[in-house]
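Reopening this one. Same input as before:
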Amino acid sequence: MYEKILVTLDGSELAEIALPYAEELAGALDSEVTLIHVSESAEDKYLHMDELYMEKMVEATRKGAERYRGKPAKVGAVHLVGHTAEQIVDYADKEKIGLIVMATHGRSGIRRWFLGNVAAKVVRATERPVVLIRAKDARPKVSQKRLLNKALVPLDGSKESEAVIPYISELASKIKAEVVLFQVVAPAHLVYSIPGEAVQKLYSPEEMEKIIAKSKGYLDTVGAELRDKGINAMSEVGLGVPAEEIIRIADEIQADVVAMSTHGHSGISRWAFGSTADKVLHAGNTPVLLVRASSATTK
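Same output, byte for byte:
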């Protein structure tokens, strides 16, 4: 599943914040790492400098991965020319990359790197799992300790949201990470009147008790399957707005990654870039692993 890891670099220190995560994952998963750099033109006057930079990054990443695995690591680099996001996606598909790791900042700043032509397009276009590392306010000396000790996994009860479970299961079993399953219960629901207007109606205490009990039972069932595989898994139920609760609990438990599917009850557009995952990506303080639910899952 994670035989090959692709790390995107653009020559900036901000983009390099993804490297320690790739090193730890490669060391734990025995993965091959490829660093990718894309130039917009073959006539780029800095092309030679970019090649030297990538050689330096390859050596540093190899040493970092070997610290985790205690044996030689396979790390290489590729320099491509063209549209950055398209080249990343095409290369990942062609080489059957198991995981793309990239920072949410790059040389061009957060709005273009994350929301514009690179990361947003990669996440939308690729079928590959993507780990997004927030470079803003990144923890200092990030490479001097284990980075992935605890994963928060938001679920909404749908098969689409559960698409992330096999991926986080393999990660957690290999890197010995704790998994916290999390479901958010809304305190109100929409009631539609005859003219077609919708109003929020609070659940009664009795109704809330039943809904919370159902959520706990669901999470306990999923958690039991993970524990049967030797994974340290527990569950939490939150009350409120999903994105806000995910961010709150991620900070509260000091999660190292939030792992979620790019589908949910509301479909890929809203789940990946709408009111839930979009807010977690923008307002959260934690790296995010996004796994796209397969078309077979969504039928």
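So the earlier flakiness isn't reproducible anymore. For the record, The chain has two domains: 4-144, 150-298.
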